[in-house]
Every structure is written in structure tokens, then in C-alpha cells.
């Protein structure tokens, strides 16, 4: 059975784009529209990789990322952050949360800024999932 | 009476020793302190030493006579009382003595009663003089103290006026300038020496202030002094100087006794305000640029996604993919043109184009268009239109874009709300207000706003929406509504929801 990739993004265009890339490269895409839905699906469907947007309604990608990195149950889930906001802005907000007493989390292994070329996204997904 | 208490010292001069003895005994028994001399010369010596209050002297004496003693005593101590003892019927001598300022005369042989009366009279005069002296002294002292106090106060006030940063100008009742402090010098440019007691203050003031003063001088003084007024002073060098002015006509009873004017120099404040405005504008531009860059990045991502899907569709001969990709491209073309339109709307003035339109229909178009995306998030759109609101003259495009913006904002506020229990809704209300306005109310029970966010709503390019927001939407809406002579109000409570109210002037469609 092919590996599962969960796409979490509030923009339907982005979800359609990303699911197509994932599908075309032989993986099974799953979709969630916000952080909250995303977390539910990670628990239920146990995807191998999450492609995570940052600014979303309900739970944001900043929170979901922390959850994935601090909860032992999710330690095998790999993450690609794909967002319109700059990497350094994302890192700054993570650091701010750490300073306010949250656990410190590692930087994302892959951070892609929108707009992304389909080939680039595909390459990163393949690198992680093999 | 006074005698015992005062216990005055008496110098008794007579060449006849027995008289001296008898008189001095009698006087001492009356409580006087008595010193005696047997000649005019001796008497004067004693007078210089003991400085008695009263001198009682015989007029006829060998050597220096009584008149001479009188003259010299008066020279030494004018306030000393001198009583002359004259021989019986020696009226001429008595008159001369009185002319020389003797206080009294008594005849020889000296009767106790006459002496007593003369002494009492002398003493009374002494007492009165002493009291007068005391009064005078007190008065002088009081004047001195009061003057000192007054000088201290007036110098304090003068210093206060001089050191005030504000310009202070005071005039007398004929508008002649009497006070003109360095602060006023700085604002008006005229040196003090050219102004004080030389210029009619009204010639210095701008017409506006001059008029205020003249009006105030003409009325009965019942009106209170004017509130601060912002205006400009044209200085000596023809510079326009922004000031805040306050002034009043000074009155005594009801008559004008002068006027005073205070000027605050606003140049520094205005400069700071300008700097701040510039800084804010720069910050706003920075925020817009980053907001727009963000928005454009998302649009570009959509374009890439769309063309990728089109490519996949062509390669795989998959019509679905092709169609989806093409739609994605079209959606992002729309997003691009919306963004550009917003930017243009914001950057240029636009006159509303009035046309006959039905506000309810426009509101309904907006609601129908957004209903689908709202229902994705289980948000109900409640329509609450006033049936009595028919066709009006209005810029339909302004209304459409404003409602579009506010209703999608309301939907976003529900989507972004963290509450899991709320049943979210957006209610759109239209109404005709009795005050001649058409009211549109967009109410949601979404996330609401903190006061800080609310304050920033219309003031700068500001977005809380990240990926979706350019920070332009409300700015554009605000501008459109203003151009339409309307108003926009917002009420919001964090966690409870937000209500936006637009009011546009009601223009009835006239038959023709």
C-alpha cells in the first residue's frame, strides 16, 4: 500500500495543487482544511508525512507543528511546512512560544515558501518518503 | 489718669531755691520724677543728659532766661513740652513764650491747681503725640511690610510671566500693551522695546482674535473667557506661526480695565505631528508591501498549481484535471484583478455614480454568492431585509463591494473563531432610518476583536488574516463609504462577535 500524505491547508486551490502532486508521484493524498481537522486525521489515519500550511483558521500550523514535535505518539510523522509566510517569521513565532514557557521544538526539516514549483515539492516528498 | 502711669520726667528750673523745693516736693508727691536746676544754663545741661518730657521753667532768671531755655530746648527736642512760669501780669513774656512753642504758662505764685492743670494738659499732648508717633511708626512699618510683600509678589509674578513658555500679552483699558513677555517675543518677532506702551495690541493680533476681543469687550462681561482656539499668527518676518490662543478682557466691576492673551507656540508640536505622520505613513507602506507580497505569493502559488494541473491534464489526457487546473487559473486571475482594483480604489479619488438600484437585491446577491463557502464551515447566513426599502439612488458598485467585503469578513471571523460550541451565523439587515439614511448591518457571532485590533481597523494597512488579507479591504470600504457621504461604525467584543453598520444617505427615486 502506498504511503499516506496529509495536506493541511485552508485554501482549496492549494489543497488541489498539492494532492495532485502527491498523487502523480504515487502516494495517497489526504486533505484537512485547518489545524483542528488536521490533528484528528493524523490520529485516525496515521499519515507518513504532513504537508502543513501555517496561517489557518481554527488551529494554526504553528500550534499543530508543536503538537507533532512534542507528542511522542506522533514522533514517526514527518513534516514539510509549506507556507506563504517566510521561514524566519515561522521560526520567530516558534521561539516566542518557547520563551513563553512552551517546550522547545526542533526547526522543521523542510520549509518551503509559496509559491512552490511542483517539481520541487515532489522532490522533497520523495526525499523523505523514499 | 495718664500721669501716674506715664510717670513723666519733669525738669524744674528756677533761680529761687525755696520755690524749687516746694514745687518739686509737691510734684513728686503727685508721682512725677523731678529733676531740678537753679539756672537756665544748668537746666539745659541737665536737659541734654536726662532728656525729660516736660520742662517747667521760670521766665525771669539771671543769665539765661526762660525764653532762651525754651528756644534751646525746642531746638534739641521739639516734642518736649515746656511750661513757662511768669510773673503776675507779665503777659508780653507769656505771649512770646507761646509764640515760641511753649505748651502753656502759669503765673507766679504757682498755685497747685493751675500747675496740675498745665501739667495734665502737657501730658495729654505728650500722650497724644506719642500715640501719633506710634501710629505713624506702625503705619510706616505696615506700609514697609506691605510694600515688601507687594514687591515680592509682583517680582514673583513678573518672573513667572517672563519665564513662561507661553507668549503672554496684557494691555490696559485702551489696548496699549503693558506686558509682553519673551514667549510673546518669540512668537510675534517684535522685540519688547518696540511694543510695550507703543502698540495697540489689536494691531498685533490676527483679525480672528481681534474680533473675539472686541466682541468680549463690548458685552457686559457675563460671558466666560474663550476656550483655546487654534489659529495662526503672522510674525514680524511674515512667518505663519501656528498657535493655540486663549484670552480674556479684564474687568473691574463692569468696566474694562485691560486684556490678557495667552499664546502657545505650536511649531514644535506641529513638527512632531508631521514627523509622526510621516513615520506612520512609512510604516503603513511597509505593512502594505508585506501584506501585498504575501497575498501575491498565494496568488502565484495558485497560478503554479493551476498550470501544473493543466499540464497533468494534457499529459494524461485527463479532462477533470484540465478543467480543475483551468478553473484554478481563472480564480487566481480574479484574485489578481480584485487586488489591483482594491489598490486602485484606494489610491484614487472616485465620485460615486448614482443610479437607481435596490439595496435589498444587492445585499441578497452578496449573501447568495457567499452562502456556499459559508456553509462549508456550517455558518448560517440570515437575511433580514426591510420590505419598505424599495429603489433608491445609490452607487450600486460601492454598496456591492462594501457588503462583499464586510460579509466575507464576518464569515472569516466565524471561521477563525476558536469556539467549538457556538452555532455560527452572519446576519445581514437592511433598514430605512427615519433620519434619512439607509442602514446596512452586518452582524456575526465569530471571534470578535480586541480593542487594539478595532482601533487599527480603518487607520492603517492592517490585516489579521495572514494568507488571505491584504489589509486593504476595510480601508477601501471605508473610503468608498466616505465618498458616498456615508458612515461606517463597528462594535465588537472579543469572543462574542462583531457588528458593522453602514449608513448611506437615502435618495428617493423621483418619478420621471
Q: Features of this protein?
A:
heterodimer, A: 130 residues, alpha/beta, Rossmann fold, five-stranded parallel β-sheet, 5 helices, globular, B: 512 residues, Beta-Lactamase, 16 helices, 21% strand, disordered N terminus
**Helix count from the secondary structure assignment of chain B:** 16
- Report the sheet-strand fraction of chain A: 15-25%
SS class of chain B: alpha/beta
Question: Helices and strands of chain A, in N-to-C order?
Answer: EHEHEHEHEH
Average pLDDT level of chain A = 90
Helix content of chain B: 40-55%
- How far is the first residue's CA from the last residue's CA of chain B? 115 Å
Just give the CATH class of the largest domain in chain B: Alpha Beta
Number of strands of chain A: 5
What can you see in these coordinates?
- Chain A contains five helices and five strands, in the order βαβαβαβαβα.
- Chain A has one domain (4-129): Response regulator (Rossmann fold), CATH 3.40.50.
- Chain A has helices at 12-24, 35-45, 61-70, 87-99, 118-129; strands at residues 4-8, 28-32, 49-52, 78-83, 110-113.
- In chain A, helix 3 links the parallel strand 3 and strand 4.
- The longest helix of chain A has 13 residues, at 12-24.
- In chain A, strands 2-1-3-4-5 form a five-stranded parallel sheet, with helices on both faces.
- Chain B contains 16 helices and 17 strands.
- Chain B has helices at 2-6, 17-29, 40-50, 66-76, 91-99, 112-163, 182-188, 192-195, 201-204, 207-218, 267-315, 319-347, 359-376, 396-415, 451-456, 473-483; strands at residues 9-13, 33-37, 54-58, 81-86, 104-107, 167-171, 177-180, 229-234, 240-252, 255-265, 355-357, 380-384, 392-394, 425-433, 437-444, 487-493, 497-505.
- In chain B, the strands form four sheets. Chain B has a five-stranded parallel sheet, sandwiched between helices.
- The longest helix of chain B has 52 residues, at 112-163.
- The radius of gyration of chain B is 52 Å and the shape is rod-shaped.
Amino acid at each position: 500500500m502506498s504511503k499516506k500524505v496529509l495536506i493541511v491547508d485552508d485554501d482549496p486551490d492549494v489543497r488541489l495543487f498539492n494532492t495532485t502532486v502527491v498523487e502523480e508521484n504515487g502516494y495517497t493524498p489526504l486533505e484537512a482544511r485547518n489545524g483542528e481537522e488536521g490533528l484528528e486525521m493524523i490520529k485516525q489515519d496515521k499519515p507518513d508525512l504532513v504537508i502543513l500550511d501555517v496561517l489557518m483558521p481554527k488551529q494554526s500550523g504553528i500550534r499543530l507543528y508543536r503538537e507533532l514535535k512534542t507528542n511522542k505518539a506522533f514522533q514517526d510523522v514527518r513534516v514539510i511546512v509549506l507556507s506563504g509566510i517566510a521561514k524566519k517569521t515561522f521560526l520567530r513565532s516558534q521561539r516566542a512560544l518557547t520563551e513563553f514557557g512552551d517546550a522547545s521544538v526542533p526547526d522543521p526539516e523542510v520549509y518551503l515558501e509559496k509559491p512552490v514549483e511542483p517539481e520541487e515539492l515532489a522532490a522533497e516528498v520523495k526525499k523523505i518518503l523514499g | 489718669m495718664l500721669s501716674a502711669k506715664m510717670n513723666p520726667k519733669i525738669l524744674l528750673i528756677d533761680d529761687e531755691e525755696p520755690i524749687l523745693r516746694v514745687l518739686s516736693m509737691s510734684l513728686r508727691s503727685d508721682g512725677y520724677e523731678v529733676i531740678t536746676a537753679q539756672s537756665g544754663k544748668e537746666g539745659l545741661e541737665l536737659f541734654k543728659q536726662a532728656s525729660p518730657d516736660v520742662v517747667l521753667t521760670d521766665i525771669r532768671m539771671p543769665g539765661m532766661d526762660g525764653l532762651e531755655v525754651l528756644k534751646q530746648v525746642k531746638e534739641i527736642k521739639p516734642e518736649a513740652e515746656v511750661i513757662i512760669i511768669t510773673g503776675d501780669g507779665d503777659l508780653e513774656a507769656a505771649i512770646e513764650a507761646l509764640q515760641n512753642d511753649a505748651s502753656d504758662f502759669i503765673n507766679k505764685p504757682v498755685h497747685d491747681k493751675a500747675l496740675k492743670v498745665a501739667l495734665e494738659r502737657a501730658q495729654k499732648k505728650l500722650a497724644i503725640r506719642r500715640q501719633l508717633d506710634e501710629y505713624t511708626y506702625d503705619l510706616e512699618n505696615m506700609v514697609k511690610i506691605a510694600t515688601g510683600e507687594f514687591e515680592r509678589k509682583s517680582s514673583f509674578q513678573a518672573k513667572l510671566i517672563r519665564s513662561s513658555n507661553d507668549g503672554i500679552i496684557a494691555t490696559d483699558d485702551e489696548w496699549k500693551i503693558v506686558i509682553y513677555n519673551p514667549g510673546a517675543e518669540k512668537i510675534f518677532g517684535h522685540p519688547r522695546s518696540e511694543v510695550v506702551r507703543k502698540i495697540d495690541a489689536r494691531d498685533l493680533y490676527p483679525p480672528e482674535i481681534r474680533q473675539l476681543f472686541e466682541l468680549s469687550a463690548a458685552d457686559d462681561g457675563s460671558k466666560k473667557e474663550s476656550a483655546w482656539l487654534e489659529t495662526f499668527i503672522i510674525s514680524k518676518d511674515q512667518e505663519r506661526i501656528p498657535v493655540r490662543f486663549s484670552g480674556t478682557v479684564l474687568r473691574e466691576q463692569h468696566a474694562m480695565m485691560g486684556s490678557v492673551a495667552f499664546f502657545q507656540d505650536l511649531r514644535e508640536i506641529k513638527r512632531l505631528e508631521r514627523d509622526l505622520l510621516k513615520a506612520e505613513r512609512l510604516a503603513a507602506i511597509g505593512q502594505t508591501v508585506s501584506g501585498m507580497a504575501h497575498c501575491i505569493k498565494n496568488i502565484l502559488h495558485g497560478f503554479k498549481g493551476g498550470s501544473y494541473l493543466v499540464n497533468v491534464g494534457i499529459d494524461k489526457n485527463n479532462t477533470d484535471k484540465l478543467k480543475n487546473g483551468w478553473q484554478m487559473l481563472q480564480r487566481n486571475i480574479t484574485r489578481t484583478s480584485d487586488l489591483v482594483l482594491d489598490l486602485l480604489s484606494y489610491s484614487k479619488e472616485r465620485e460615486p455614480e448614482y443610479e437607481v438600484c435596490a439595496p435589498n437585491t444587492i445585499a441578497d446577491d452578496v449573501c447568495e454568492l457567499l452562502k456556499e463557502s459559508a456553509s462549508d464551515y456550517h455558518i448560517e447566513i440570515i437575511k433580514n431585509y426591510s420590505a419598505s426599502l424599495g429603489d433608491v439612488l445609490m452607487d450600486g458598485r460601492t454598496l456591492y463591494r462594501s457588503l462583499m467585503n464586510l460579509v466575507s469578513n464576518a464569515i472569516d471571523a466565524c471561521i477563525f473563531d476558536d469556539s467549538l460550541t457556538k452555532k455560527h451565523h452572519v446576519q445581514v439587515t437592511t433598514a430605512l432610518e427615519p433620519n434619512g439614511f439607509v442602514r446596512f448591518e452586518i452582524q456575526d457571532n465569530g471571534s470578535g476583536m480586541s480593542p487594539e485590533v478595532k482601533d487599527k481597523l480603518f487607520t492603517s494597512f492592517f490585516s489579521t488574516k495572514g494568507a488571505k488579507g491584504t489589509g486593504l479591504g476595510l480601508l477601501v470600504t471605508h473610503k468608498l463609504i466616505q465618498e458616498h457621504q456615508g458612515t461606517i461604525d463597528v462594535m465588537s467584543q472579543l469572543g462574542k462577535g462583531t457588528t458593522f453598520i453602514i449608513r448611506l444617505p437615502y435618495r428617493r427615486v423621483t418619478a420621471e
